[in-house]
Amino acid sequence: MHIRIDLMALATTTSLFLGACAQTPAPGNAPARGPVAWEEIAALPIPPADHRTEYGDGPLQFGELRLPRGAGPHPVAVIIHGGCWRSQYDLQHISHASDALSHAGIATWTIEYRRLGNPGGGWPGTFQDVARGTDHLRLLAERFQLDLSRVALVGHSAGGHLALWLAARGNLPAQSPLYSPDPLPIRGVVALAGITDLRTYGAGTGSCNAAVVPLLGGTPDEVPDRYAQASPIELLPLRAPQRLLHGTRDPIVPVEQSQHFAARATSLGDDAEVWLIDGAGHFDPIAPFAPAWTRVEEAVRSLLSVR
C-alpha cells in the first residue's frame, strides 16, 4: 500500500453529517480552518446541470451531465453521491464537486439512484441503478462527444462504496442479481471517504453504520452472500487503479476503511494508494472551496490523463 502524507491546514472542530454516510493535501499557506461542515455544503446554491437524462423509467433513474468548454471528445467522471444510502440525501449536495470538475476539463455524469426509503431501494435496486446509470454513458457518448476510453468513477462516503463496487462488478458470479454481462470499462476509481468493508462498517455504532443492515436486508450471518457480492473488499482485486482520499479527522467513516482496503488490494496486485488529508473531515473532499479539493482534482485528472 502506498501512503502519501502532506501537511494541510490543521482542523480544530468537526461536524457530523446526520445520516450521511478520503490521503494528501497540497502544501501551501492557506489560512487555518476547521473541517468543512455539512451545513456549509447544504447552504451552497445548486449549480445547474447542462443536461438531465433518464437512464430508466423510474423517477430516480436519471443523471445530470455537465460538459467542459471546448470540443470533445471529453474524459468523463461518473459521480456517485453519498448519504448513507438513504433517501433524504440526493445528488444535489455533490453537484458542486461535479461542477468544479467540469470546469477542470472533465465531463461529469452525476447519477441519482433509488435509496433506502425509496420503493425498490436497497438490495438489489440501489446497486442495479448505479450499474445501469454508469453503463448508460454508452448511449450518451456520441451525442455529447464523450471519450469512453477515459472514464473514472468518483464517489463520496456511501457513494465511495458504490464507486468501488462498480469497479468490482466484473468479479460477480453470473447468477448474482447484481451481475452485469458487459460493464463499462474504466480507467480507475477515486473514493472520497469511501466505505469499503460493509461487514466491519456495519458493526459500528453511528447512524450511518446502522444503514448497512437495511441496505442488504440482514446481518452478515443472515445474508452472507449479499455481503460477499456488495462489499468491495470482498470483490478484490479490481484490476484498475484506486485512489482513496480520506480526511484524518473524519468522524463518520474511519480512515482504516481506506487503509485496510488499499493494503488488501495491493497484496492482490492492484495499484491502490491512500492519500491522507491531514486535518480534513468528512465533507472536505466534496467542497471545492476547501484546501483538500486540489488533491481530489489531482487524483481524477491523473487517472484520466488530463493536464
Structure in words:
The protein is α/β, with parallel strands linked by helices and 307 residues long. It has one domain: 3-Layer(aba) Sandwich (Rossmann fold), CATH 3.40.50. 27% of the residues lie in helices and 18% in strands. Strands 1-9-8-7-6-4-5-3-2 form a 9-stranded mixed sheet, sandwiched between helices.
CATH homology group: Alpha/Beta hydrolase fold, catalytic domain
Beta strands, count: 9
Low-confidence stretches: 1-31
Shape: globular
Q: Can you tell me the number of structural domains? A: 1
CATH class reads: Alpha Beta
If you compute it from the alpha carbons, what radius of gyration comes out, rounded to the nearest whole angstrom? 18 Å
The order of strands across the largest sheet is 1-9-8-7-6-4-5-3-2
Q: What is the name of the CATH topology?
A: Rossmann fold
Largest sheet: 9 strands, mixed
Strand content: 15-25%
Which helices and strands occur, and which strands form pairs?
Elements: E1 2-6, H1 38-42, E2 51-54, E3 62-66, E4 74-80, H2 95-103, E5 107-111, H3 125-135, H4 137-144, E6 146-156, H5 158-168, E7 188-192, H6 198-202, H7 212-216, H8 224-230, E8 242-247, H9 256-267, E9 272-277, H10 293-303
Parallel strand pairs: 1-9, 4-5, 4-6, 6-7, 7-8, 8-9
Antiparallel strand pairs: 2-3, 3-5
Features:
9 strands; 9-stranded mixed beta sheet; 18% strand; 27% helix; disordered N terminus; alpha/beta; Rossmann fold; 307 residues
Summary?
The chain is α/β, with parallel strands linked by helices and 307 residues long.
